[in-house]
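Write out the 3D structure for:
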Amino acid sequence: MKKKILVRSLWGAPIGLTICTVVTIIFSLNYGNGEYYPASHVLIAACSSEIQAVILQTVLTMIYGAMWGGASVIWEMENWSLLKMTLSHLVICSIASFPIAYFLHWMPHNLLGAFSFFGLFFAIYAAIWLSKYRAIKKQIEQINSKLKENS
């Protein structure tokens, strides 16, 4: 189990970095007026230089990806209920997400910013969870249908 978590974390780290890089490119295309913005202006100001901001962002998004990658092992716990898996995964990912979002200035540093971040986080999490649940439920129904046909 520990080896599986480690391997998933090692895969998750570059995925987190890749997603962050793609987001900065999309942001720059939409708002950059031909310039590339590798990090938010607020993060750059807080770090005193662009390179320090990019280094911090790189390290933290790799940690973020690693946490999500490692946490994905939860979905393979066959002796756990779906509720226990969902709540465990949600708690771990929430605990990983908030400090990184805070330090990278993905949210305003006030109570409203924190509530807004968690509201958006939970809404996105729920939407992804529901879509995956429906897809898996449909697959199970198709398998059951084929089993009935064959018996």
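The radius of gyration is 19 Å.
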